[in-house]
Amino acid sequence: MMGQAQSGADKEVTLQNIQELYRKFASECPSGNLHLHEFKKIFGINRNSTEEEAAYVEIVFQSFDTNKDGKIDFLEYVAALHLVLRGKLEDKLKWSFKVYDRDGNGCLDRQEVKHIVKIIYKIKKHKDPSITGSIEDICDRIFELVDKNNDSQISLEEFIEGAEKDPWVLEQLQLDIGPGDWFIEQQDKNP
User: Fold this and answer.
1) 183 pLDDT more than 60
2) Is 26 within a domain?
3) DSSP at 66
4) pLDDT tens digit sequence for 65-87
5) Residue 81 in contact with residue 90, Cβ under 8 Å?
6) C-alpha span between 10 and 21 (Å, rounded)
7) Distance (Å, rounded) from C-alpha 55 to C-alpha 79?
8) Cβ atoms within 10 A of the Cβ of 19, count?
9) Can you tell me whether residue 154 is helix, strand or coil?
10) Domain range holding 105?
């Protein structure tokens, strides 16, 4: 068997795992739809969660709700699962870009980048208080490294190229939604 020694994020997700997740979806969402409050529960968002964590999960939820009807149906769930568990880096970056691009114009301006960076920064800081630097500095550095033509906008190409080239940029820009481990954990529990 290939990849038996893998751990954490690199765990292989098999077709059987995915079928099991669909079964869970069907049993947990008999209506065939996943609403925001249920989605938050999946990500462990509760009364003890920070405002930023809740806002972040809401942004993720909206990005998966592709038809914007306020719920994630089975097809959207399948697409989201596929992206999270099996998507290539480029697909994940395209998805991250879409989340950043709040007005949907195909370019990221400073406000859009700052909005997400601020949420992620506060979550990271909450988990590790020793993190230093300001949100402004992070945004400045992202634009310096990624905005190749200096037009104060980041295109999808610049976003992907910058993230693939520079590990720091990748860490700042890629939305690490982290439910992969949660999905695998769920499978380890008894149904």
Assistant:
1) no
2) yes
3) T
4) 989 999 999 888 888 877 877 78
5) no
6) 18
7) 22
8) 10
9) strand
10) 89-173
With CA atoms as reference, report the closest residue to 163 among 172, 153, 151, 154.
172
Mean pLDDT of all residues in 24-46: 83
Which region, left, alpha or beta, applies to residue 152 given φ > 0 means left and ψ of -120 to 50 means alpha?
A: left
Number of domains in the chain: 2
Phi/psi of residue 73, each to 5°?
-90, 180
Q: What are phi and psi of 183, to 5 degrees?
A: -60, -45
Among 154, 134, 129, CA closest to 144: 154
> Distance between CA atoms of 24 and 2, rounded to whole angstroms?
27
Contact 7, 178 (CB under 8 A): no
In terms of Cβ atoms closer than 10 Å to its own Cβ (0-12, 13-18, 19+), residue 88 is: exposed
Is 3 domain-assigned? no
Residue 121's pLDDT band, with cuts at 50, 70 and 90, is confident
Asked if residue 55 and residue 31 are part of one domain, the reply reads yes
* Residue 62 half-sphere exposure toward CB, CA atoms < 13 A: 12
Could you say which DSSP state residue 47 is in?
T
**Inter-residue contact 133 to 172 (CB < 8 Å):** no
The alpha carbon of 190 is separated from its chain's Cα centroid by a whole number of angstroms, namely: 27
In terms of C-beta density within 10 A (0-12 exposed, 13-18 middle, 19 or more buried), how is residue 60 classed? buried
The string of DSSP letters for 2-43 reads TTTT--GGGPPPPHHHHHHHHHHHHHH-TTSEEEHHHHHHHT
